[in-house]
Design a protein that fits this description.
The complex is a heterodimer of chains A (188) and B (86). Chain A has 188 residues and is mainly alpha-helical. Chain A has eight helices and no strands. Chain A has helices at residues 10-29, 32-48, 59-80, 114-117, 121-132, 136-146, 152-159, 163-186. In chain A, helix 1 runs antiparallel to helix 2 and helix 6 (136-146) crosses helix 8. Chain B is built from five helices and no strands. In chain B, helix 1 crosses helix 2 and helix 1 (9-20) runs parallel beside helix 4. In chain B, 22% of the residues are buried. The radius of gyration of chain B is 23 Å and the shape is elongated. Chain B has one domain (9-85). Classes of the chains: A mainly alpha (188), B mainly alpha (86). At the A-B interface, helix 1, helix 2, helix 5 and helix 8 of A face helix 1, helix 4 and helix 5 of B.
Chain lengths: 188, 86
């Protein structure tokens, strides 16, 4: 008796899997252009690797495994672009004040009535801008944990970072966002 | 140092952030509460953090409702490329 093996059918890949792969990517890097590129790359790499397909997994699972590697590579690349990925610090990084608020970053009481304005269109634009302003590396981890449905463990596993690393990133992102909202909205 | 009860503003606000995701431990919350008692600068942070979380939740819902499909022309292009590489 032979065990039925999964087969690959590249002619149907786009129809069957492209939307799924695209959504999968988008939820991880939230940049639609780059997501499209990665999906495209995945199909091309898959074509080249077809001979290595052993039929153990189904087609989609196999494609996703290739895509995952592409996403991790993409993330690593961002990680190594150090200059661009510099986040604005809110605290002294060294010296006797280490860990204390930088003077200009000390949280101020917010002037406008925050709960009334929370629904405001304009405020949503401001928060979009503030999020865009985050360095890519921080934005990615922050968005995955905050805006998309990933738990801490999943992110750490996928991006190969420790959980304390993740919290430092989220912390930097949030302190920067807080400051950005304060400067551009609440105490403008 | 990790178990030190007296923490800096940087650590305190990190715990506060963690709390927004319900992942701060009991010990961490204790350290945070004490820090907030003695540190005026950090005291407004938790409240503002709540506001930030609310805003971000609204964003998250918005985002999940967005269309996430490739257009038919994009699919066509991809198909072409696959054909050429077969």
């Amino acid at each position: 008796m032979t065990i039925s093996k999964h087969k690959l059918n590249p002619n149907k890949w786009i129809d069957l899997h492209s939307d799924y792969l695209y959504q999968y990517t988008l939820s991880r890097i939230s940049d639609s252009e780059k997501s499209k590129d990665l999906v495209q790359d995945t199909f091309l790499s898959a074509l080249k690797a077809m001979d290595n397909f052993q039929g153990k997994a189904n087609e989609r699972t196999w494609l996703i495994s290739i895509l995952k590697r592409k996403i991790v590579d993409y993330y690593r690349k961002i990680n190594s672009k150090k200059g661009r990925a510099e986040v604005k610090m809110s605290f002294y990084e060294s010296g006797e004040n280490k860990g204390k608020w930088l003077e200009e970053c000390v949280p101020q009481t917010w002037e406008s009535d925050t709960l009334d304005t929370i629904e405001s269109e304009e405020l949503r634009l401001v928060i979009d801008l503030c999020i865009d302003y985050l360095p890519e590396k921080y934005a990615m981890v922050f968005k995955m944990r905050t805006l998309q449905d990933f738990d801490t463990e999943e992110i750490c596993k996928e991006l190969e970072i420790s959980s304390s690393n993740l919290w430092v990133i989220i912390h930097r992102a949030r302190t920067q966002l807080r400051k950005c909202l304060e400067d551009n909205w609440f105490n403008k | 140092m990790k178990n030190n009860f007296f923490i800096k503003c940087d650590d305190a606000t990190l715990i506060c952030d963690k709390k927004q995701y319900k992942e701060a431990s009991f010990w961490e919350r204790l350290k945070l509460s004490y820090h907030l008692l003695v540190c005026k600068n950090c005291r407004v942070y938790p409240e503002q953090n709540e506001v930030l979380t609310k805003l971000l939740k609204i964003k998250a819902v918005e985002l999940s409702q967005k269309e996430k499909h490739l257009s038919s022309s994009e699919k066509k292009q991809m198909k072409e490329k696959i054909k050429n590489n077969l």
